[in-house]
Every structure is written in C-alpha cells, then in structure tokens.
Design goal:
- This protein is α+β, with helices and mostly antiparallel strands.
- It contains 4 helices and 6 strands; from the N terminus they run E-E-E-H-E-E-H-H-E-H.
- The strands form 2 sheets. It has a 4-stranded antiparallel beta sheet, sandwiched between helices.
- Strand 4 and strand 5 form a beta hairpin.
- GO terms for molecular function: DNA binding; transposase activity.
- This is Putative transposase.
C-alpha cells in the first residue's frame, strides 16, 4: 500500500497553471520618519489585506516598526508584482492619511506616506517559516 499523498495548501491551481508564489515586501515611510504607531500599523495591515484580496492574492504575514512595514504575500502569476505594490502603497497611503490626518501631518510634509522605492524578495529559496518568523519578530504585534 502506497503512502497517502496530501496536497500542499500553498500550491494553487488555475485552468492552465499550478503555482506557489510568495514575495517578501518592505515599504519604508517617506523621510524614514517614525510615523507609524501601533493603531496605524494595525489599520495598515487591514487595508493591505483587502488590497491583496482584490488582486486574488493573500496577505500571509504583516508587521512593522515605526518607519517601515514587512509583508509576506501569496499571489497568482496573473498579477504583476509591481502593480500589486503600487496599489498596496497608494491605497494604504490614501486611507491612512485620511484616517490619521493629525498624527501623520506631524511627520510627513507632503501627500506621500511611502518612499517611491521598495524591497521585493522571492521567498522560493528560504523556507517560508523562516520568513514568517522574521516578520513576526518585528516590533508591532500585528492585526
């Protein structure tokens, strides 16, 4: 009798594709100012989870400190990562600046919350548990 095969829950199937894509993303606040408080980080995680859902992706982990955030995103191959990043940064910036106007105005002098640059790393080479642990070890307790 052969051992029973159990499918990997991270492997997704589409009509013509089987995929398992994860990206580790890091966004930094403009001027590297320490503008992100725990309530802002919590709300930011909620917003970014909604944006991921709209793209057919899943926000697996979210955490951060006062001047940057880390995301672990599981996304389909039909999504251009740069488009997802632009939407994550744009939508979160609009919502957070509107919801936390007084606080963020003290740290940011223009209409931008995030720097234009970002880090994106493929998680194919490292075990996802290591990436998740790294993100979990950031200061904020997460949503």
């Amino acid at each position: 009798m052969s051992p029973r095969w159990t499918p990997d829950p991270d492997v997704r199937r589409g009509r013509s594709v089987v995929h398992n894509l994860h990206a580790h993303l890091v966004f930094t606040t403009k001027y590297r100012r320490g503008a992100l408080t725990d309530p802002i980080l919590t709300r930011c995680g909620q917003i970014m989870a909604e944006v991921c859902h709209d793209f057919g992706a899943e926000l697996r982990e979210f955490n951060g400190e006062d001047d940057h955030v880390h995301l672990l995103v599981h996304y389909p191959p039909s999504v251009a990562l740069s488009r997802l990043v632009n939407s994550l940064k744009g939508v979160s910036s609009r919502h957070l600046r509107r919801e936390f106007t007084e606080h963020l105005r003290k740290y940011l002098w223009d209409e931008h919350l995030w720097t234009p640059s970002y880090f994106a790393g493929s998680c194919g080479g490292a075990p996802l548990t290591m990436v998740k642990e790294y993100i979990e070890d950031q200061k904020h307790p997460g949503p």
